[in-house]
Amino acid sequence: MTRKSFFDLVEIRTKLASLFPFLIAVLFTNTYFHSFHWGKTLFFFFGMFAFDMATTAINNYMDFRKAHSEEYKYQENVIGKDQLSERTVVMIIFGLIGFAAIVGLTLAVQTGWLLLIMGCACCFIGVFYTFGPIPLSRMPLGEVFSGVTMGLGIFAITIYLNTYDKKLFFMDLDMQHFALTGSTTAALAVVWASIPLIATIANIMLANNICDLEQDIANHRYTLPFYLGKKNAVILFNLLMYSSYAAILIGWIAGIYQWPILLTFMSLVKVYPQTRIFTKKQIKGKTFAMSIKNLVAFNGCYALGLLVTLFWQLIG
Fold it and tell me: What domains are defined for the chain?
């Protein structure tokens, strides 16, 4: 397997979807909770990245095995197109998942049981998103699962790793009792701050499913746009994108963010015309990229707003 084939198998170009929740969580935990453990954070990053690659590889493998269209199977899917060995692909998947499991278990031993539960929940969704008799991605809730798992799951786990010693979210467990404790205010702040991430990540899946609607139907894949209809799915795409700005504004008013977070609105210069382009035409090779560009523009400015907040706090 060549390096290019491997990168195509794990779709390395799509990994921004997991990098932004991690990066923004690191900045948010510093600005809101004023706590940071760089060693555990860096270790988690490698495990998270490996698992993200594994889930994408599983997706491509299962699409190859279950494809009803020969054209898709041997001309579009990387496994058939590059004539990759199925055994090699499976070994890569197990290797990546195994490494991620080692990272997760090590960090759970160091920080507490709650991390194990959160990690297992994300892993379960990640694996069964494309694996099994009825994968989650072939259901009309694929956008919800992808958005929540990456937008909230990665975000919350990163924050937990940096605040576990403060016990803002913590689980005590022994042979007879368990107790889940934490700060309601902190939990609400984490969930609210993750909303823009959930929305922009879900929009990538939604845009992909809109563009692939006819091909998905041919392969017996009935995603959310099939049930909503293409017109309503495009309206949802717009609502998710612009609701991200509403979440930032409300979060600032509620005191979750400080004034530099308003720099996020600079992204509208890029997001507005890109969203209009996708709204007019939904073509995989031409306009699907608008959803990724929107994610980069919005979350790049989101991260910038938090970074400026951090500097403002340091000099204040």
Answer: 3-315 (1.10.600)
